[in-house]
């Protein structure tokens, strides 16, 4: 597989316009990225723009805090699929995890997975807020709940992806789920470090810069 096959080309900043999303999609098609990752309000536009391409649409759910009610996440996920999303990237409820409410965390994820069926579910752990033990626990709960991927970060927290967090996630899922590294990955060298660890997807707003090795193309930010 080529490097571009691993990239979810991402634009989630609150000021993103319709034109920005269409540009993101055009870049994704040009560089053969695996998917674009957008907020729910832009799923329909992205899906229409990518209709005749192989690039998928990933939509974020419960973003960026993960602290809304499960029923809201489920409704958001269903709406994104109706608008044309292929994949859902949902944010784990960090507060529930830190409260020791493991069953509630698992149910939050499993309800979204049940709602989207065979569509891919990536669970964002927001590892910057978690201890090593909590990263391991969150990864395990996500797998138990049927997640297809565990993902490091939203890009909106106090920290981004780290190699150490990915190593913990990889050990915890033990091949039962894939791993997506996201947050702060802006150049090819860094992206390759994660791929060499066994990461299956890279979430980045710098996809063009990564595949072209041209930092001047780092136009998008989370």
Automatic annotation (TrEMBL):
Q: What does this protein do?
A: Catalyzes a reversible aldol reaction between acetaldehyde and D-glyceraldehyde 3-phosphate to generate 2-deoxy-D-ribose 5-phosphate.
**Does the record bear Lyase in its keywords?**
yes
Among the entry's GO cellular component annotations, what is one?
Answer: cytoplasm
Gene designation: deoC
Q: Which domain of life is it from?
A: Bacteria
Could you tell me which SUPFAM superfamilies the record lists for this protein? Aldolase
Q: Name one GO molecular function term.
A: deoxyribose-phosphate aldolase activity
Matching entries from InterPro entries are given as: Aldolase_TIM, DeoC, DeoC/FbaB/LacD_aldolase, DeoC_typeI
Q: Active-site residues?
A: 89, 151, 180
Describe the reaction catalysed, as an equation: 2-deoxy-D-ribose 5-phosphate = D-glyceraldehyde 3-phosphate + acetaldehyde
Recite the UniProt keywords alphabetically.
Cytoplasm, Lyase, Schiff base
Q: Which NCBIfam families match?
A: deoC (TIGR00126)
Q: Which CDD domains match?
A: DeoC
Give the similarity note. Answer: Belongs to the DeoC/FbaB aldolase family. DeoC type 1 subfamily.
Q: Name one GO biological process term.
A: carbohydrate catabolic process
What is the name of this protein? Deoxyribose-phosphate aldolase
Q: Where in the cell is it found?
A: Cytoplasm
Which pathway does the protein contribute to? Carbohydrate degradation; 2-deoxy-D-ribose 1-phosphate degradation; D-glyceraldehyde 3-phosphate and acetaldehyde from 2-deoxy-alpha-D-ribose 1-phosphate: step 2/2
Q: Which Pfam families match?
A: DeoC
Query: In the UniProt record, does the keyword Cytoplasm occur?
Result: yes
Q: What is its EC number?
A: 4.1.2.4
